[in-house]
Amino acid sequence: MRIVRSLLILSCGIALLSTAFTNMAAAQAAGEPLPPAPHAKETHLKHVLVVGQTKGFEHDSISAAMAAIYDMGKESGLWDATLRTDTELLTKKDIGRNAKNLDYFDLIVFASTTGELDMDDSQKKDMLSFIHDDGKGFVGIHAALDTNYKWPEYGEMIGGWFDEHPWFTFNAPIINEAPDFPAVRHFPKKFVKYDEIYQPKSWSRDKVNVLLSLDPSRLNFNNPRVHRTDHDFAVAWAKMYGKGRVFYSTLGHTEDAWNDPDIRKMYFEAIRWALWMTDGSTESHPRPAASAESK
Question: Which of 64, 72, 178, 264 is the most buried (most CB within 10 A)?
Fold first, then answer.
């Protein structure tokens, strides 16, 4: 009985397949268009290189940051991300072995890199050319400012260097200075984030567009680690480096920061901006009057 039932099911299946092929052949003969093959739509992904090499302090949040950038690209369908903890791909030389070089990528992200990275002079030249001459992008996350102190052009490109974090990790009072910029327009005018805010040196707001800054009226300056006499502490900025776009933010020190939708959205929109998918000014502007009066 089971054999008979199985034969009947098999016969029905063959009949259905035969009917389908017959209908397809008839449609072709009649000149009717066939439905498109699945997944036939072309997508033009951007290519993002995420570097997390550390030669100094190692942040626990590096893996979370790298994973977030990978996931955001995959979920949005806008980019694919290559995640590396070395600097081998920061070159325009042919590496071989199916390895990609900077000619393949559209954006570099430094995810809390620290110290003097393993880059020779030709790699440094290629990376700067990638941004300055090719007009591609760079996004620096948190400790990207604590990187390459012996490479003056790097500091010029990113906008400065780390000079301590006067309040360590705290409830940072932040002012949104550029609510029209895509990476920060989702933030209110004033808000608080629990994070570690870097104090930049060799930095000036007249060379960048300050997007977020600390509210000096809510800070304690009775602190030996405070070195900036102007009490101007930028939290995020955007700038041009030659033809390329550069974004940096000190936010993202903690692992929990990468579970914060606000922080993820900021970096998502920053990457889109640095990839020339959106527009946002890099023109510098004076400090808000309230902040300037509080210094």
Answer: 178
122-150 pLDDT, tens digit each: 999 999 999 999 999 999 999 999 999 99
Average pLDDT value for residue range 146-174: 95
Residues 6+ apart with CB under 8 A from 1: none
Strand order across the beta sheet in which 244-249 lies: 79-84, 46-51, 107-111, 137-141, 244-249, 234-241, 209-214, 169-176, 190-196
DSSP lists the bridge partners of residue 153 as none
**What's the CATH fold of domain 46-293?**
Rossmann fold (3.40.50)
Average confidence (pLDDT) over 235-254: 98
Per-residue tokens: 293: 């009066």
Is the torsion defined by CA of 82, 87, 90, 95 positive or negative? negative
Amino acid letter, residue 147? T
The pTM assigned to this predicted structure is 0.84
